[in-house]
Design brief:
Number of domains: 1
Structural class: alpha/beta
CATH superfamily: Divalent-metal-dependent TIM barrel enzymes
CATH architecture: Alpha-Beta Barrel
Strand content: 5-15%
CATH topology: TIM Barrel
Distance between the termini: 6 Å
CATH class: Alpha Beta
Number of strands: 8
Strand order of the largest sheet: 1-2-3-4-5-6-7-8
Length: 260
């Protein structure tokens, strides 16, 4: 049995030669919920016809947490995103410290996050909570890594996202704890999960190095799964990973790692 974990996978990273609605349908057939990176490019009618459950999407189009202009843009495009995804039934909308381009790089790289930026980020996230209350959804704040994929991103470490989310401590703002990024940035994944536990809204996984499915790298995801179960975590766990070779095999490895 799967100890209450609700398993999902990011459709944008699997079966790259297939249309997105085919991928969503296949994930549903295999018993997984569906995560998306983007909502605008896709035909929502086709996605709805798959009958899949769509769980999370990038929750904004542009904007930043830590300056006035960026915050206004973030709030406006977050509202646009929630409205645009209404028919898909998505309830979790993902945020980062700043907008990212197609290469995953920040639109405004930051070397040092100042105290004023921290205070502005808190204020922006409080406004996000107000929006979430109005729209009856949840926003998550995702940690990223600075060493490989997202250099220059403010509030990238899990330590940073935990600090922000816990300081606000609102049920409409949770952590998207990405263990791939955390392994690259901090390690000590089980300890990190314990520290983050009260505020986790979703856990995302991919192995290190390579960002492929569990079992292709150094992380003992079966051990992580046992620790999460011992903590009483029964929320969503999503594979946000490339398939090392075959997408079906990658998903089977993911399911095995998180089946107890």
């Amino acid at each position: 049995m799967t100890h209450g974990f609700k398993l999902a996978a990011c459709a944008e990273m699997l079966w790259l030669d297939k249309p997105i609605d085919w991928r969503a349908s296949r994930l549903k057939e295999m018993g997984f919920d569906v995560g998306l990176w983007y909502w605008q490019p896709h035909d929502h009618d086709k996605l709805i016809r798959t009958g899949a459950t769509f769980t999370i999407v990038n929750g904004y189009l542009r904007g930043r947490l830590s300056d006035d202009a960026g915050a206004e843009e973030l709030i406006a495009t977050a509202r646009q995103t929630v409205h645009g995804c209404r028919r898909l039934g998505i309830q979790r909308f993902n945020l980062h410290g700043t907008g990212l381009n197609a290469q995953g790089l920040p639109d405004r790289p930051v070397e040092h996050v100042t105290g004023a930026m921290w205070l502005k980020a808190q204020d922006t996230l409080k406004r996000i909570c107000e929006l979430a209350e109005e729209e009856d959804v949840v926003f998550t704040l995702e940690n990223l890594n600075l060493v490989t994929d997202h250099p220059g991103t403010p509030f990238a470490l899990a330590e940073d996202t935990i600090a922000l989310v816990s300081s606000i401590d609102h049920p409409r703002l949770r952590l998207n704890l990405d263990l791939y990024h955390a392994q690259l940035g901090e390690g000590n994944l089980i300890g990190l999960c314990k520290k983050a536990q009260p505020w986790i809204g979703e856990i995302q996984v991919a192995d290190v190095p390579g960002r492929c499915e569990p079992g292709t790298g150094e992380v003992n995801f079966a051990g992580v799964a046992r620790a999460l179960a011992a903590m009483g975590y029964g929320g969503p766990v999503a594979m946000e990973a490339w398939a090392a070779s075959d997408s079906d095999a990658a998903l089977a490895a993911f399911r095995t790692a998180f089946t107890l």
